[in-house]
Amino acid sequence: MRPFLVLVILIITTVGRAQTTVYQPFGSWLDPEKAAFSRWEATRQSQTAAQARAVASSARPQLAGLRPLEVELLEDAMLRKRPSAVTTTSRARQHIIRMSKNPIGRNYLNGAMNEALFVERNPEWGYVKNPNAPQHDVYRWLPGRAAPEMGQVKFHADGNPSKYVADMRRDFRAHRIFIPDDHVEAAKAYLRADAERLTAAGDKINAKAMWRDYARVRGTGATSEEVLAARRTAEKFEIRQRYATYMSFGASLALAVGPTIWDWANGNLPANQAVYRTTRALSLLGVGVGTNLALVTIKDGALRGTLRGNLIVGTAIAITETAWLLHEHGWSHALTNPEFYESVAGSITGLAFGLAASGATVVWMPGPGWVVGGAAIVTGAVAGTVGYLGGRSATHMLFEILAPEMLQQRQRDRIDEVNEMLASRTQKLRLLAN
After folding, report:
1. Tens of pLDDT along 116-162?
2. Residue 398 is part of which domain span?
3. Same-domain check for residues 287 and 170
4. What dihedral do alpha carbons 127, 132, 136, 138 form, nearest 10°?
5. Strands 217-219 and 176-179: what pairing?
6. Which segments of 13-134 are extended strands (E)?
7. CB atoms inside a 10 Å sphere around CB 394
8. Between vectors from CA 171 to CA 143 and to CA 226, what angle results, nearest 5°?
9. C-alpha distances out from residue 276 to 256, 270, 280, 348, Å
10. Are residues 123 and 93 part of one domain?
């Protein structure tokens, strides 16, 4: 019994000594369980506060949500990286378009997009305040540290590991080096092989530096193909938006030229319709360009050059063209006239072809703005005219198959019109002869 009591006393004494000493005023008593809970809660709150510390809101991408994510991320990055030259979003768009025209500029845009995607996909990280900060692009806060953890974001399209290693030697102060996910494995393998080679050669100092670089390498959360695709998406959007007026002008011009070519090819081009055709063409051009300019006032012009924007412009032009066609075919009689439906179908296909062709032209056409704009107008007009003629021909073939009686009636009506015209002229000649 006595050995058992001695053992119990020793255990109690040991547990009491293991507890942290808690100050208690003389004459007061504090429950040890409550004291332990208070200490645990204070520690938990302290750690939680440290973990919850986020980067400044201004260090995160500032997105309006009006344009595609890739576009606004790259615009935001340009505003941050070149604050002296790029002071507004409009200037950012101009710089993106200008840089997209040469390899050096595209390489710069690749790097900016790589940083933007990294920050967007890693919410605990933010841009450093100073865009010219040496060796640092991004930062984050860690629990228990008074200074932030710094990172450098790098991108090389070919993924050459030696280029990333050279970057790390220059940017030795950064705690982390972030590169595209599909380049991480090759870069780490290169560093590991170099570190093992130096270790085998007895160069422990440089080997240690290589192992440090090995530990610094991290993925950005995006592959190199994602970065390149995002950059191309942003470039195409900005270019189409800038040259949207030329695109609508070319498509409108197609509807002005297409009907004239059709009538000329079918031997139905009255000489006395010059004023009518000119007025009609000018109205189509005015509606197309005017609608596009009106889109500038909607959502900061975010719809210009997009599929929705082109649909709005095309609808406005199509409505104007349909009104002219209804007038030309006698309003109520137009619905029974195959030519009306052929013209409407030709207008729709012409607009679609014209806008699509001019949109592709402004993206891939090199050269200064006036060259790109002129090429967009010519391409839109030519492709739109081809689309008009093709759409109208296809509709005519459908009528021949599905409703040949309507075409036959149209031919009879034309014969009657020609007979009436001949009879009227014959009557005039008789009166002059008498």
Report:
1. 999 999 999 999 988 777 789 999 999 878 889 999 999 999 999 99
2. 243-261+270-402
3. no
4. 0
5. parallel
6. 126-127
7. 13
8. 80
9. 11, 11, 6, 21
10. yes
